[in-house]
Amino acid sequence: MVMTPLETRLEERLTELAGSVPDPELPMITLAELGVVRGVRVLGPGSVEVELTPTYTGCPAVETMTADIEKVLHDHGMPEVSVRRVLSPAWSTDDITDEGRRKLAESGIAPPRAGAGQGPVPLTLAVRCPHCGSTDTELLSRFSSTACKALRRCVTCREPFDHFKEL
Amino acid sequence: MTAPTGTDRTAAPGTAAPVAAAPVTAATGTGRPEATSATTGTDPATTAAALALGDDALVLSHRLGEWAGHAPVLEEEVALANIALDLLGQARILLSQVGDEDELAYLREERAFRNLQLVEQPNGDFAHTIARQLYFSTYQAFLYAELARTEGPFTALAAKAVKEVDYHRDHAEQWTLRLGDGTAESHTRMQRAVDALWRYTGEMFQPVDGLTTTHGINWPALQGSWDQSIGETLRGATLTLPETPRSGAWAAGAGRQGLHTEPFGRMLAEMQHLHRSHPGATW
Q: Residue B277: exposed, middle, or buried by beta-carbon count in 10 A (0-12, 13-18, 19+)?
């Protein structure tokens, strides 16, 4: 389908709207910053399809994300919205934007380290404490309040904190 | 293929799963995982493979969920629930490739489930749960890495899930080392657990046809990698690798053919009773 400049503009606008939805579990960042909105396609007049990829296969937030995207697009005059879940290519923490990382750290969640595609075990880079900035932190549990986070403690300031673990 | 050790040998593979024979389009309601066109309506072997992998994930997820409120420390409570959630996510995607995920999970009879007998084994003490996690997550890590590496109907899911499974495996290995090389009591319990579950591990390497034909899985090679990894972990944990038989007449394991152990029936009763008592209930 060849798109007119107007349709291209519309898709851009809808992509912006879908991406502006806050993450239900990490409301300080948007879905665009999390890197989970894969594409927005206008299927016809008043009909749009959004491709959404889950962070974890079992992420329960996907259903809320879906509903929130539908709502924001409905509210902006798009009567037919379908949100399609796509798995491939698999989401990685490298898909989180720099702005997303900055906001996570600002909210006390240590952002994932970049370039972690090789799995969790070989990583040796220190995780920085989001409270005091110390790199002397220790792992308390690989699993934390949500599937995507690990629980750590800062040895310097003794504060526990969540770490968005690399995936 | 291992002869079933149960008394009833009449259930032939596939006969107990009418839902698997006739794939239906997944419901398109909000939030439902979508069946991919690569597998919907494809050959029965692929459908059967999706059911086998999906049931492994579903059943183990439920078992791990049983720890909620009972785990030894809060961190483990959260860890086991997180692992269960990952597995449930895999199960939903896989079962949706076969048919309606809720019908498959809540309305099938025991004989229609195709999971390994390993994953249905009761939680036991914490060491038993960790041994089950070690055996299964190591299997899943190697299998999914292969599925992700090769082009076929399970590539996308496996590429996604394998990264999560790496965390599950790491969790199980760390605990195995800690318990095996811990106190005399923890060592005894961990050894007892790896011994008790050993006879269920042979079944993991019985070929699943739909994975052999589509992804070219080499089952003896998979078993070799598993044996080596488990051997290293157990040795590192000062534990003894079980030497009891796990294949042939001594092996447990006909779960892939729909034959299950007694505790599975009780687990299903608990898992399914709400849905069966209140059909269509939602919240």
A: exposed
- Please report whether residue B104 resides in a domain: yes
Task: Look at residue B87 and tell me if it is in a domain.
Answer: yes
Contact between chains at A119 and B171 (C-beta distance less than 8 A): no
Q: Give CA–CA dist B28/B5, Å, rounded.
A: 41
Residues B222-259 pLDDT 10s: 999 999 999 999 999 999 999 877 766 556 678 999 99
Q: How many domains does chain B have?
A: 1
Helices B155-180 and B126-149 cross at an angle (nearest 10°) of: 150
Amino acid in the structure at residue B169: R
Closest chain B CA to residue A165: B167
What residues contact residue B6 under an 8 Å CB cut-off, 6+ apart? Answer: B254, B259
Closest chain A residue to B82, measured at CA? A147
pLDDT in tens, B136-163: 999 999 999 999 999 999 999 999 999 9
For chains A and B, CB pairs below 8 A equal 91
**Domain range for B196:** 18-242+253-268
Is the residue at B13 inside a domain? Answer: no
Burial A129-155 (b: 16+ CB within 10 A, else e): bbbeeeeebeeebbbbebbbbbbbebe
B68 touches chain A (CB under 8 A): no
B78 and chain A in contact, CB less than 8 A: yes
Sequence-ordered alpha helix ranges (H) in chain A = 5-19, 31-34, 61-75, 98-106
Partner-chain contact B157 A87, CB within 8 Å: yes
Domain boundaries, chain A: 5-85, 109-164
* Residue B99 belongs to domain with CATH number: 1.20.1260.10
Model confidence pLDDT, tens digit, residues B18-67: 434 334 333 334 444 444 444 445 789 999 999 999 999 999 999 999 99
Query: What CATH architecture does domain A5-85 belong to?
Result: 2-Layer Sandwich (3.30)
What is the residue type of A14? L
B170 has a chain A CB within 8 A of its CB: yes
Q: Does a structural domain hold residue B273?
A: no
